Amino acid sequence: MTQNGKQTLSALVENKPGVLNRVVSMLRRRNFNVDSLTVGRTANPFVSRMTIVVDQTRGSGKRIASNLFKLVNVIDVKVISDELHVSRDLALIKVRSDDAESRNALTLICERFPARIIDIGPAVAIVEITAQEDIVEAMIKELEPIGIVEMVRTGVVAMGRGVRIMEADDYRPAVEAIKEDSGSYQVYGV
Amino acid sequence: MILSGSEIVMECLIREGVEVMFGYPGGAILPTYDAMTKYPQLRHILVRHEQGASHMADGYARATGKVGVAIATSGPGATNLVTGIATAMMDSSPIVCITGQVPRGAIGSDAFQECDITGITIPVTKHNYLVSDVRELPYIIKEAFHIARTGRPGPVLIDIPKDIQTEKIEFVYPEGEITLPGYNPPKHASEEQIADALELIKQAKKPVILAGHGITVSGASQELQELAERAGIPVTLTLLGKGAMPEGHPLTVGMMGMHGAAACNFAIQEADLLIALGMRFDDRVTGNLKTYSPNSKKIHVDIDPSEINKNVKVDVGIAGDVRTVLRQLLPSVPSKTHGEWIGKIRDWQEDGDERDILHADSQGKLLGAQVINDLWKFTGGDAITVSDVGQHQMLEAQYYPHKRPKSMLTSGGLGTMGFGFPAALGAKVGMPDEEVWAIVGDGGFQMTLCELATAKQENIKVNIAILNNAFLGMVRQWQEFFYEERYQATPMFNPDFVKLAEAYGIPAMRVTSREQIEESVEFARQHDGPVLIEYAIEKEEIVYPMVPAGADLHNMIRRPKPGEVQA
Ligand SMILES: Cc1ncc(C[n+]2csc(CCOP(=O)(O)OP(=O)(O)O)c2C)c(N)n1
User: Fold this and answer.
1) How many whole angstroms from its chain centre is CA B363?
2) pLDDT, tens only, B351-363
3) Per-residue pLDDT tens for B301-312?
4) Where are the domains of chain B?
5) Which of residues 105-134 of B touch A (CB under 8 A)?
6) What ipTM goes with this model?
7) Whose CA is nearest to atom 13 of ligand 1?
8) What pTM, to 2 d.p., does this model score?
């Protein structure tokens, strides 16, 4: 299930300041090698979800998961690449488009990949591709001869297939209840 | 009840059962110091350097099993705590550190004495908090103590901006259980794991138990002894495992590792089963991992799942509380004796490196090993000893057998010089009825000797035994073995320790011969405050045996036999 020595982990974390810092600090301290790390919200405003792709030559997915799990703000961790899963990487690639040849080549490549041209001018065009990481890599290889000017990628997001495996639907920090009940918060003469 | 943030801190500390705080004031924590005047039941001990505060809190925690509390101001006060926090982290000691921070509005502006102490301590705390809202404070303090003392214990830091300390709100204490969704320390083993472990124990012919600090922390000494006796398994101890099983018990072989007993290291290398309980296969106990105990199956029980298979691959890895797991295991443990195996270990013990020197004629010299062993003898082996780091630490481990858990405190994981004396003060504050000895080297003592004033001011009865060899002894030993005796930066000019103590109003005595050791213990016992005794020991003593760093565990440098010429 692992591709080229890489493992993908999903982590549900508390949506609090500094949590990303804690995760990254642990990965650095333990000398794990991060390929990509993405973080975004979930359906629960108090919970964020991370997808971490690591090079497992410096520590198995299991070891990294158990270290992540030790962080108090990490609610759940799964080594998602050990299971059936889908993953996507999004790339914006700026390519040379200053002659007919380059424009034709670009169009042909985009037809064969889940990609499209989202901006084109006399000098350069921007291509967007959303696909599994290795497919993104393959397309980049094909674009190289045309001339890649710049590129940005989101990093991998991944999810296990079938019944939901990770959730923290009802998690809500206890202190939130008090904070929302603004009546109880009154500052008395500082 | 309308209370300020600082008063809320005090109320919460009292609810956590805190009796004493070790600290040092400063601008950003002043409101909290002011609140202390309203809570005289909370004893505050003024240290002389914040490093002392975190070590004292740590010593208190290790001796009592309760959470130790250290308190400091922002910036330099907070950074001075860090060595003690890292020390507590490495040895899984539960402390809570409270630091003042600049007011919220000033955070990020490089304000006077601003320092990102939560950022700095992320890697050396179990968890930390920067309080951003006074309403969070009671929750945070409750969580902090819970996190510090449960699971694999460790330090937790709470950074409180000054304006939160002064803000006043209606105080409502969060009663009830804490629920932290991401914090569920493991407890039990699965039935399958127990069955697998039992199978290995049944089959084993040459089993060895490796008992670590986790035994002490989880209170599993009795269960450990039961397992060893029932299944006839010899027990080896890590440095921090000392006291987990009584030394002197026929099944206790001794300490393992770099300066461990040769018999322990041989037994581990030749074993067909290792049962590792609450220990983490530190490089100081394994030596070269490639040749470590090559023919054994391995069972590893540790509360921290990330320790399983970290350094040593095991056959049965159980993430759980070692006491709980042993209780699950014990009812089905077979009755065995392993007479032949134990006989073999006894033979190795006969050829120990420790024994000879005690009876050797020291030719008028005072040897560190003899000082420690005599201290053991004249204190009846009942004292709480707190050692610093170096040769004297290893000599303590070798020549002061301990009978009970929490009676030997030392900085194992981080090896922090300067730990011993302040940690001993903390231990004595927590255990006022125990005889507490700080056993320190002349080097390490000078790192935190400013706490002599603390000991005097608070009249904390700790007996300080300085093993003065006028060298950074352990480093000198490495230079002798591995750097052709080039003693770069290890000879020490030292103050007159006796006069120094006297300057603090602390009675002191210098011991230069073995005959005076008994008298020195009596001298220490005569005074009801702190006492300092300097033992002027042989300068170039060597701690044997020694496994050079990274060498195979069985390849120890042994003490040359009498008459043998040292290579
Ligand atoms: C804070 C710190 N700095 C440096 C060291 C490295 N170190 C380990 S043992 C040692 C020598 C200790 O000398 P001393 O306190 O005199 O004790 P001895 O070994 O002579 O018993 C040193 C420098 C350390 N462990 N801790």
Assistant:
1) 35
2) 887 666 777 777 8
3) 999 999 999 999
4) 2-170, 191-348, 363-536
5) 118-119, 122-123, 126-127, 130, 132-134
6) 0.90
7) B472
8) 0.95
